Amino acid sequence: TISAAIAAARAGDRIFVANGVYREQVVIDKPIKLQGTSPEKTIIDGERSTTLSDRGQVRIVAAGDVELANFTVRNAGSSGQNPSPAAIYTQSPVAGVKYDIHEMHLIGWNDPNGDNDFGLVSISGLEHLNFHHSQIEGTISAPVYLEDHFGAVTLQDSHFTIALNQTAASGGVFFARSSGSTDDIVTPQRIMGNTIDAGTGNSSFYPAGLAIIGWGLATWTDMEISGNTIEHITPNRRGINFISGGAPRAIIKDNAILREGGYSGIAVWGPCEDVRVEGNLITGITGEPAPGQNGGIRLRDGSGVGGLFGAPVRTRIVNNVIEAYRGITVESNGRFNQITDNRVSASGPATVVLRADTSNNSVVQNQLRTPLDRGNQTVLDSGIDNIVRSNR
């Protein structure tokens, strides 16, 4: 078994695993390298067991560097302590170590009537989690779920698919801060170059292709979401959903959010500060199921959700290309936000909406078009001391 090989290994060893199907829970509790021949030929199958010792069909808890590569992990089991299955669960007890996971294929239960199951999960981990060049599909809940993960994170060049009938509110890639969080996460968090299929099944929970959810005041201080493609933003689904009480140096750039329909392209919620939304392509967002209420980019008032009050401040929305029912909306309490050099084509009556109680926002030098009008005529400004000029 793989478990016997790990038990026999010393720190720093590399274990090569031969072709075959391994029906066991694999616990990596020492710094080693575990390598299969290929995901197609080296398979860890949980058989949906309900007797795992703890969470994770593959469980990485070593206090040193670990490399895991070239496996399929499917049909993850669960434990009595936590019934939600996870193909891979990581949680380093010490900071400064690196878990490098690549060339993996994680497959969920593909059962819309089953319990929630996840692909990659880490809760309160301290490791630098590097997950790349891999695929996750068929999970009933989020393919990637990280909660209060204080180590650095890199999710790169991978493909994530939400199960077609997913009903959870999470989404494809889900970063969460618990409601009692008090300490900021200051390590770099990078989500880059991934393809996320948001699914096409019915859902009343508005899942997002990529969701960053921070309740309360604690937040991430170095977040980059760049170069991702999010597909199938159909009705009741969002592209990128960013909720935080504060986010200095957060960057959402060069992402493509595609498909006809969809609730919103990029939504930034709560009293965030200094978020950059730059160079994104957003197409086909109709605001469904409530046309016109959402749209391409939305700076949204938290309205007390999760303890957040107020709308984003000093957000820079620059060089985006948007095709939506409504292009850009700044809601109540949004202040000092800059909307510059965007190309916005709206199928509804307005390209940019500045709602009541917004103040000191600027809408300058954009190309703004609706079917009948263009430029400054298509900006609806109900706020205070906003600047609207030089749009065409």
Percent strand: 35-45%
Largest sheet report: 25 strands, parallel
| Nearest-integer average pLDDT | 89
Helix content: under 10%
Enumerate how many helices there are, as a single number.
Answer: 1
What is the terminal separation in angstroms? Answer: 67 Å
Radius of gyration: 22 Å
Given as residue ranges, the uncertain stretches (5+ residues, pLDDT < 50) are none
Number of beta strands: 38
Please give a structural write-up.
2% of the residues lie in helices and 41% in strands. It is mainly β and 392 residues long. The strands form 2 sheets. It has a 25-stranded parallel sheet that branches.
Keywords:
about 40% strand, 38 strands, about 0% helix, mainly beta, about 400 residues, 25-stranded parallel beta sheet, 1 helix, 13-stranded parallel beta sheet
Quick gist of this model?
The chain is mostly beta strands and 392 residues long.
